[in-house]
Give the backbone structure.
Amino acid sequence: MLGMPLSPGSRRIAEYRYPTAVRVLVLGAGFGGLELTTMLSEALGADADVTLIDQADSFVFGFSKLDVMFGKREPDAVRHHYRDIAKPGVRFVQETITAIDPVGKRVTTDGDAYEADVLIVGLGADLDPTLTPGLVEAGNEYYTVPGAERLREVLPTFEGGSAIVGVCGDTFKCPPAPSEAALLLDAFLGARGRRDATTIHLVIPFGKPIPPSPDTSEALLAAFAERGIAFVPDRRVAALEDGDAVLDDGQRLPYDLFLGIPVHRVPDVVKASGLAENGWIPVDPGTLRTRFPDVYAVGDVTSVGTPKAGMFAEGAAVVVAEQLIARSRGEESSSRYDGKGACYIEFGHDEVARVDVDFFSTPGRPTGTYTAPSIQTAEEKAEFRRSRSVRWFGG
Ligand SMILES: Cc1cc2nc3c(=O)[nH]c(=O)nc-3n(C[C@H](O)[C@H](O)[C@H](O)COP(=O)(O)OP(=O)(O)OC[C@H]3O[C@@H](n4cnc5c(N)ncnc54)[C@H](O)[C@@H]3O)c2cc1C
């Protein structure tokens, strides 16, 4: 039984069912929150006592934004509606979280207030385009669904000139995504007969496209060279001004089309909660525990030391779920987050590569394994999407 009212405006999440039961409050239904709640429901059934809160009505895979932007999939087709979540012991609530008290494990939303025995913060990274002067007025971004939908209208009208894919902050979701956008733009313009009329620059704050995997970086650099994409390493776009992208060293690149990756930061509610330090939520890398007892954080909102990417958020969620499942049985979990994950990389022309990265085995020296682009890996990526859709939403 879930959602027993405590008092008006304050709701008790669930009754204890047996001595070791815990009321679990999951903040954010992204990669991390969805996998966590699915595992708890599978293991504990109706006793799971999970309330999952998200402000949105649906989940969109990050990589689906590329499909929307380049007109490969309809915006409605990439939305997975939270109303379809039907899991024993899990209740989804669509509300915006306005305050988090990590000491009392209390959460306030625009509609209610909640308290829990265990709190898991999976609120992801927010984007702040206003931190890059000119970006809102004179650029585009494709990291949000509205941004990708807008570009879907803009790109078919672009007849040529200077196009820039530019990263504006130091840290950003899915490290391959800027390279993917440059390669997909090349293919998109080629198919429309506008490639010869366009120059493409890719500006990123790393020395190489994928620093932990030299093979992946080499393959991407070779693809850029072959397709005439100018790679500008170790730079961020600091502003858009008078038709130029102004880089952080003062260099100016004129543009006709700017595809930006805005500055990332924790959601305001996380900042106000005191959970974040130096920008993100610090956690024990093995257990994902924060410094507050019974408060965990997973995924992009943390500074756990892995990239901001879905598979890493999912891997962290698995470890938290295993701890909670063990606890509900009165046991201790020995499960530790291993910092391993993979990203698919769109190379254009329907081919997809893959990079698997291990961040923790050799401290400070992540290592990566590259799988070259192929149609087969594209099918694997489609299966990845399909399997999560079935697992989390039932279809
Ligand atoms: C263009 C693009 C391509 C990508 N490609 C890949 C890829 O190929 N592979 C990969 O692994 N990753 C990819 N990613 C990254 C991936 O989408 C994210 O890293 C992943 O979604 C992070 O999961 P998370 O659970 O930490 O947070 P998220 O999935 O971002 O979920 C956070 C949730 O919290 C909710 N939320 C935030 N604030 C509030 C609030 N105040 N109240 C209520 N709810 C709130 C949000 O609505 C959101 O649903 C890509 C991202 C982009 C933008």
Observations:
- The chain has nine helices and 25 strands.
- The longest strand covers residues 340-348.
- The radius of gyration is 22 Å.
